[in-house]
Amino acid sequence: MIFKPIIILSSIITFTSDQVFTLEHVRGYYSNFTSYTDTTKKFKKEGYPVTSDLFSQNQGEYKLKKGRIFSLDKVWFTNVDLNQTLVILLHTDDYRLATYHFLNSDVAEDLINRIELHIKRKYIFDLVKFRHKKKYLPRFIKSAKIIDSSYFTTTNGLRLGDSKSKILKLYGESDNIAVQNGVEKYEWRFEGDLIVQGCCPTEKPVPEFSQQAILLFRNDKLIGILFHND
Questions:
Q1: Measured distance CA(56)–CA(160) in Å, rounded
Q2: Which residue segment(s) compose the domain that 30 sits in?
Q3: Same structural domain, 138 and 212
Q4: What's the total number of domains in the chain?
């Protein structure tokens, strides 16, 4: 999405050979057409304060094996007192592509479906089916690195067990709601600061970078979180 306004602008604005096209040109061009103002509700991109130095102390090359099942490109953290686990999916240079946060005693099927686990067949890693993931998940949780409970609060102050009303007050109206096996799934798509300034004014909170949030509730209490970063 971030390239769309650049493509449009290339057909409208011309630059001399010694000019440099920057993101400031995008902001400047669209500022004449949008209602983006300083009153737009901003907040920090959601995440967890787990520091990267804990990654190297965890699984090294980010490959964990239980039986024949592998967890690839993920780091696992848990807290015994909270009975909660964080799973962070890493990309190049330890970029946090996704973070999963759940109660060890109540892992929603939607989260289990989204956490990829693999089995090695000769030289290829194949995805395993749901029933295998559900079976092996407790073993991966047991091997997770134990960290302090302070790491299990999000950047904007969310904790498992929070009420739905608290989250709706912070995030606003969700983009989609679904119910499965007694669990309500609320989804939000937050466009980043540059996108909103460029073309998409919004009443939603605006983080610095675009992000998807999926929050899972049982009996109006938060039991699971997924943050996916662009």
A1: 26
A2: 4-45+154-229
A3: no
A4: 2
Residue 99 in any domain: the answer is no
Alpha-helix residue ranges (DSSP H) falling in the chain: 4-10, 23-30, 53-56, 109-114, 130-143, 164-171, 193-198
Task: Identify whether the C-beta of residue 189 lies closer than 8 Å to the C-beta of residue 174.
Answer: no
Q: How far apart are CA 227 and CA 45, in angstroms?
A: 10
Residue 97 lies in a domain: no
Instruction: Check: CB of residue 69 under 8 Å from CB of residue 127.
Output: no
Q: Per-residue confidence of the chain (230 residues) as pLDDT tens digits?
A: 444 444 444 434 444 445 454 555 444 444 443 444 444 555 678 899 999 888 864 445 688 999 999 999 999 999 999 999 999 999 888 889 999 999 999 999 999 999 999 999 888 999 999 999 999 999 999 999 999 999 999 999 999 999 999 999 999 999 999 999 999 999 998 876 544 444 555 555 544 568 999 999 999 999 999 999 98
Question: 8 exposed, middle or buried (CB, 10 Å; 0-12, 13-18, 19+)?
Answer: middle
**Together in a domain, 128 and 183:** no
Q: Convert the pLDDT of each residue in 12-45 to its tens digit.
A: 444 444 545 455 544 444 444 344 444 455 567 8
Residue 225 dihedral angles phi and psi, to the nearest 5°: -140, 140
30 lies in a domain?
Answer: yes
DSSP of 157-171:
---TT-BHHHHHHHH
